[in-house]
Amino acid sequence: MSNPAETPNRVIPIQPVGDDEVMVSLYASRQKIHPRSVSGLFTRWRLFFVWATQLVFYGLPWLTWNGRQAVLFDLEARRFFLFPLVLYPQDFIYLTGLLVISALALFLFTAVAGRLWCGFACPQTVYTEMFLWIERRVEGDRSARLRLDAAPMNAAKFGKRALKHGLWAAVGLWTGFTFVGYFTPIRELAGLVAAMSLGPWQTFWILFYGFATYGNAGFLREQVCKYMCPYARFQSAMFDRDTMIVTYDEARGEPRGARSKKADPKALGLGSCVDCTLCVQVCPTGIDIRKGLQYECIGCAACIDVCDDVMDKVGYPRGLIRFATQNGLANGWSRAQMVRRALRPRVLVYGSILLAITLAVFGSLLMRVPLKVDVIRDRGALAREVGQGRIENVYRLQIMNATETLQTYELRVDGLPGIELASEPTVQVAPAEVRAVAARVQVPPGAAASGSHPITFDVGVAQQDGLQVREKSTFIVPR
Q: Which domains does the chain have, with CATH numbers?
């Protein structure tokens, strides 16, 4: 039986027009792919990453730290909790650094070993594996699913389809609920769901991400990797002939053909490939790896596992399909030689930049002062004369306590002769809170000429020199 995944997109003649012209259609409808189940080393690694990533994703919002959710991005309060860290929008630079680190890590791994991220840890791959597992348990393996697709609708088929889609929808909704739980305290969110009193935005985002998971992993699947994901399109810019990719050893495998297990392939003029097409049947994107490197290949190595299994059964050495480099195959290099070639200039540049940025970002994060201060001038009264001819400016200090303990901060000001703080010199700020205080600053008459003069506010915890912030502002002396 032919594999529907092998049907290529091609032009299809429709009808002749006139004597010489022929109308053709450049569109071919999608052929549904039913990947065959497979076992082996790389399959076990793929299952490990499915479990590892989902334990982190589903479990992380339920962890607590200091009596609150360990990881919470509270957009409404503009506070972000990450275990012991309390971050504010002013710390957005760290998110930028994290995204840069992720991008460079992806470039580095791709240059060294191709699309391993896609094949083992990408959310699209992970959720597709989960949905395929449900599909296999409900509808059976590949051949059973193909027969079910071809069968007319009846009670048994309807029941299986309803059960499958119900389980898919449950996983999708749980995923949406968990995702929203990173932005709304998840225990509070669970209580709202149980009481059926979710707000409109919470309801929208749970349904949105639930539907996205259901649609992408249940229906679109390989279409996301082939047509929607930009990574498949620009990966070629990071590949070279020393990139470790899933490859078919054409010199050993060709010419391919079926034969008896006891037959001598050399006597028949055949290579090691028995043309079983199992490598195509297990491919989640439906490609034939024997046709060479293709952008649709996500590097999941399912074809390696199934081919090794076939080689074991027919008594041939493993490795007809394996991770190798194009230069390694062409020159007959050993695995050790190919690995040594990984340390080439491109990889060293990616690695050096990645290491430097990682050290800078995490070093800055560790040394950051858990206190933020913004100084805003009172625009209603830029400057005024008060008792004894003193000049007063009023400022609004927004103090952000980035610790989880009550802090008492001392306020000081300097920059002009005789300058002093006329308002309260101390302020208390609750744990992980923001407090705005009015600061009245005065200078004696004649201390400075008319105009704008730079001054500095010092805000810090008494007897803790490291916990102090200096912010610049200006003091205006009227004419």
A: 39-368 (no CATH), 371-477 (2.60.40.10)
